[in-house]
């Protein structure tokens, strides 16, 4: 792959060169996020290096660390694209293994876990796009990019050419590094061209399936709604930071996790009240579904269902 070869050797972009695995991991973590590295060959000495160019909302980098396994609990609040300038990589996902190399890359969304292995001769081209930058480029919803990226497709050629210009021309690299205004304009064009190349419009993004983190949060809420849950509890169960969870619910559910929890409790309360079996009082139902303030429960119940909880219970007893 032609992209990022100049960035890889550009002295001003070089972040580190290291023969210490822990040092390499710590330095990569500073511009990406904490992760785990596992050498695939005990015989091989670690030889790691990284270059990185930061622009507003966007980071472009190259990483080489030999035959290595990579594990990440979840991608933080950004979209991560990985290609191989040289060598190859393999990503183990729930849907099966994905091989990258040559013109084939992978896109990982916020909240996704990462398990990958890279060949001894692999040098990665990594793209970090802040979730906020992606939302600005596709305003209706946070877009879910296609997992596999094939640079041989004609629709992706403009984006690939732009990436080549930004990472293979010394004068352009210097300009992007020095001038934040121009860097920001290039970054916006970079993200917009990627969305066009993936044929994702605002309308298409609206129809995208919610990310796994949102679904994990919803499953946790459904199973544990009666417990005294906090936003941090839900984010922990979803395996994403609170901020990422809030963004996911806002852009895929037009809601918040705590409102989702409240509505799940109210729906369960109504089912218990109209069922009537073994129900003695409204207060009992409120407590059973996780409400500890009867007045607030009654107010929110009325707002959602148009009647007081006592009316629902009374009607069930008369039927």
List keywords for this structure.
Homeodomain-like_sf; Arc Repressor Mutant, subunit A; activator; seven-stranded antiparallel sheet; 14 helices; HTH_AraC-typ_CS; alpha+beta; 319 residues; AraC-bd_2; five-stranded antiparallel sheet; Jelly Rolls; 2 domains
Explain the overall architecture.
GO terms for molecular function: DNA-binding transcription factor activity; sequence-specific DNA binding. This is Putative AraC family transcriptional regulator. InterPro entries: AraC-bd_2, AraC_XylS_family_regulators, Homeodomain-like_sf, HTH-like, HTH_AraC, HTH_AraC-typ_CS. With 319 residues, the chain is α+β, with helices and mostly antiparallel strands. The protein has 2 domains: 5-206, Jelly Rolls (Sandwich), CATH 2.60.120.10; 212-318, Homeodomain-like (Arc Repressor Mutant, subunit A). 46% of the residues lie in helices and 22% in strands. It has 14 helices and 12 strands. The strands form 2 sheets. A 7-stranded antiparallel beta sheet has the order 1-3-4-11-6-9-12. It has a 5-stranded antiparallel beta sheet with strand order 2-5-10-7-8, with no helix packed on it. Helix 4 crosses helix 5 and helix 4 runs antiparallel to helix 6. The radius of gyration is 25 Å and the shape is elongated.
